[in-house]
Design goal:
There is one protein chain. The chain is of the alpha+beta class and about 425 residues long. An 8-stranded antiparallel beta sheet has the order 15-12-14-13-17-18-16-19, with helices on both faces. Strand 13 and strand 14 form a beta hairpin. Helix 11 runs antiparallel to helix 12.
Amino acid sequence: MKAAAAPGAVTDLLPADQVLTGDEGLAWSRGFPAEAVVFPAGLEEVRALVRVANETGTGLVPAGRGSWLRAGGWTGGGRVVVSTERLDGVGHYEPADLTLTAGAGLGWGDLDGVLRPHGQWLPVDPPGAWAGTLGGVVACGVSGPLQGRHGAVRDNVLGLEVVTGRGRVLRVGGRVVKNVAGYDLVRLFTGSRGSLGVITSVSVRLFPLPGADVTLCFAGEVEEVLAMAAKVRTVALPVAAAEAVAAAPAAGREMELRVRVLGGDGEVEEVCSRLVREIGAGPGRMLRGGESRALHRRRADWEDGSSLVVRLAALPDRLAETLARARGVAGRLGGEVSADVLGGLVRVKGSPGAAGADGPAGILVRTRLAMEEAGGTMTLSRARPELGARVGWTGSPDGGGPLAERIKSLFDPRSILSARCP
């Protein structure tokens, strides 16, 4: 079959109401350059799509709701987006076991709606999760500030069902926490961004909802906030998350340290009191319950609408240096910063317009060199393709080297699925 006819061969496998093309496809994918978007409604349809793609040489891009299609520069070559939106059923949920198995297309908000009536939640809070799906969160593998207390995404995934680039169905891991047999393929697929297979089902471990949710907010100049952050990071108290962000104009200070404490009512009150004593200052504001949850829900959407998002990461005890470099980038590119105090990750969002004689590319290249010399990293989460090509998305020009190539060849030998990270 000729390559020109290949997308049609794939889209013809599904009914018309499961295919979007032209302007409708572009609108759904937020302008991502694909020739069609398809919505398989079951495992066998996913398998058939992958098999025909192999026969015709059609590039596929796995996606959930399409909210992260452009993130990280991974998905530049696909001709057909395969959305798992319709794979959104809950296959197994046993509240007493604190485990759940659901289709990869289950929306994050829908997942919360299933769990909350049973007093449970999945404490994973990556950027943009509420616009995405369970499978999308797992495929991207990006964690948020709660990972310091509850672990990263990969730590909370028990099992996966995946259609590989060969068209084979793999069921790896299981539905229980104690499941250690053979190679840990769950961790391999978590964060692989659909480059090895289409995730169709996910099993996760759950946690009881905390009885109390309190966020203490301390405003101050940068040096003051860093000093407070150091105390929070080293204190022997169960802090769930801590972030340093730009303070609201009304605060009259440069930054705000937001410390989140979760647990039983008495435990949280005791931890908050001890934190205030350790820091040596009272919070400018204290948010409880729904107000605290709403604040962190908004924080998860912090990157939305930005054409550039940069992630600078180093050891947490080097936060002052990392934050200084991030603020330098933000100042040159007209952006803002948000720092994960416990994880040592600082994000910069902005709009790279005019930025001096060498433009944003020069600024970012020099920042990466400085971060790598200090033992850290700089990656682009979001950028225009031309800027990503000039700067490099990860700083690893070989895309992971021979080992990554070998793994790719085992699961997707014809590179039907989205390619390795550039």
